[in-house]
Structure formats: structure tokens, C-alpha cells
Amino acid sequence: MSASTPVGAPGPRPLLTAQALRFAYGDSTALTGVDLELAAGEAVVLVGRNGAGKSTLMRCLARWVHPSAGSIRLVGGAAGERDARRRVVLVPDTPPFWEDLTAWEHLAFVARAHRLREWQPRARALLRRFDLADHGDALTTGFSRGMRQKLALTMALLVEPPVLLLDEPFGPLDPESARVLWQVLDAYRIEGHGVLIASHQTPPGRPDRYLVLHAGRIVAGGPPDELALALGARSSAAEDLLRAALGHDG
């Protein structure tokens, strides 16, 4: 790990800025001063080993938990809880569902909660994109883990938040579904949204930047090729970047 490793400047219009974030579970420190920016039109992948603090950081950014120190700001000012829930949406690694509701009823609930108008065409299009169109009237109790993940993604994208946070979204998906998800996210960022993905694996497409989280702090970051060159990594794949950043690249 090198203090001179470039962090990779984001685009000119940050949607989300975190400064000196700290978080602890009792006496166990999970985040030790994280600085992070996500710009409009960016897809950024956060990589790190198990226990590095990726999920904790995502939950802090979404205001699901309160950092013990530091600040989080969104475009337009500081992020209060109500404001954050409208403008930042997190899909956790194990999304929860109401088991007595159908897939379509989940979408209707989200639309009502966010006061969405004329949401049905977009909902149907997203269900088709994720190959769930034939399962709209089915209860989620019969859904596989991959289907549940795709429904959670559909619910989040229906809201169209400026900032979309995804915690390990590719793990439950088959290769084709992962490829489709990346295409959807790529189009989403092109529309001017920001996407931050926590993942321990290389995504099916190239992000604008990688950020490497280790022991609760970001130790390296930048565009894939630039970061690989700076770290002396074997390639710009997430696994090689992480190995090089942590000094394990032989």
C-alpha cells in the first residue's frame, strides 16, 4: 500500500461526498476515516476483502446506520435521513421482501411510498429486462436467490435515485443476468446518475474507477488502467488490483 497511489479524481459534479467517515461496532472499528466522492455519470466499484468494511460503508452512505464521525453530503446540501432515502437507494447483499406480496405488489408499494406517477410502464420494462415479466403475479417465497436479487434491483431502479448503491449485486446472478445488469447500470450512469458497487469480484464491464478498501479505509483508487499501472498489478481486473494494493502481488 502506497500513500502516493492516486485516488483518481471523479467527474466535475459530485453527487455524493463523504469525508472522514468513521464507524465502530462497540469496541470494533469498521471504518477509520473514509473519504469518497461519487460524480454524476460515474460507475465506481469498491473492492476489498471480507471484513474490509464495504457493507458498513454502504449502509453509512445510505444512512441506514449513523457514522460515529465524519460527514456525508449530497448535491443540494447535507444529507438528512429523509432526504437521503429519497436520493440515495441501497440494495443490500441480502434484500428483504414481504413474503405475502407478489413481485408486482412490491413494485406498487415502492411506487406509492415514493409518490411515483405513471410508473407502471417503467416497471414492466424493468421486469422484462431482468427476465421477470412472467413472474409479476408470483409470491417472492418461490423466487430463487437470483430472482430475488433482480426484483430488488427492479424496485431500486424504479425509483430512479440520483445515487444507486449496490452491495455485492453480481454474486447471486448467472453470467447472462450479470451482463444484463451491467448494461442497465451503464445506461443508468449515462443518464447522469451515480452508481457505487461494492464487490469482491470483477464486474462484467469496466467501471470508471475502482476504490480499494482495506481495514476500514480507502488505500488506493483510480481508473482501471491507471490504477493497474500505479500499483504494478498484473491486470486491471478487480482481483489483481486488490492483490497488488494489499502487497500480495507476486
Describe this structure in words.
- With 250 residues, this protein is an alpha/beta fold.
- The protein has one domain (14-98, 152-245): P-loop containing nucleotide triphosphate hydrolases (Rossmann fold, 3-Layer(aba) Sandwich).
- It has helices at residues 54-61, 81-87, 103-113, 120-129, 145-159, 175-190, 224-231, 238-245; strands spanning 14-25, 28-39, 43-47, 69-74, 77-78, 88-91, 163-167, 194-198, 209-214, 217-222.
- It has a six-stranded mixed sheet with strand order 6-7-8-3-9-10, with helices on both faces. It has a four-stranded antiparallel sheet with strand order 2-1-4-5, with helices on one face.
- Strand 7, helix 6 (175-190) and strand 8 form a beta-alpha-beta unit.
- The radius of gyration is 18 Å and the shape is globular.
- The two termini are 14 Å apart.
Helix/strand layout:
Blueprint: E1 14-25, E2 28-39, E3 43-47, H1 54-61, E4 69-74, E5 77-78, H2 81-87, E6 88-91, H3 103-113, H4 120-129, H5 145-159, E7 163-167, H6 175-190, E8 194-198, E9 209-214, E10 217-222, H7 224-231, H8 238-245
Parallel strand pairs: 3-8, 3-9, 6-7, 7-8
Antiparallel strand pairs: 1-2, 1-4, 4-5, 9-10
Helix pairs in contact: 3-5, 4-5, 7-8
Number of strands: 10
Q: Tell me the overall shape.
A: globular
- Helical fraction: 25-40%
CATH architect. name:
3-Layer(aba) Sandwich
Mean pLDDT: 90
For the sheet with most strands, the description reads: 6 strands, mixed
- Annotated CATH topology: Rossmann fold
